[in-house]
Amino acid sequence: MDKVIIYPNQEGCLNFVYPAPHSSLSFEDICCKDVPAGTPYLIADASDIPTDWLFYEAWEADFSNPDGYGIGADAYFAAKEAEQ
After folding, report:
1. Domain residue spans in the chain?
2. Other beta carbons within 10 Å of 31
């Protein structure tokens, strides 16, 4: 995939999720599952992420208008099990 999920962690830095290219999950499912519960996330093009990771701890993102909020893995799998 050419998309990246970005979300803030508890230390104030950014986390990046690069979904596996041949995942059986939809991109939306990956966002919900892999982002911690209640945490806002943004979806960005992988080409927009700097390639020099030397100062990645100083990178910032504006989460005032997120693309969504994660629900975390436990809630995600519980919801999928309830659907069956």
Report:
1. 3-83
2. 24
CB distance 46 to 3 below 8 Å: yes
Report pLDDT for 82: 93
Q: In the predicted model, what is the mean pLDDT of the chain?
A: 92
Residue 15: DSSP 8-state: E
**Do the Cβ atoms of 44 and 37 come closer than 8 Å?**
no
Beta partners for residue 40, in sequence order: 69
Structure tokens at 21: 């290219």
Q: Is 29 exposed, middle or buried (0-12, 13-18, 19+ CB in 10 A)?
A: middle
* pLDDT (tens digit per residue) in 17-54: 999 888 889 999 999 999 999 999 999 999 988 888 88
Structural tokens at position 34: 């892999």
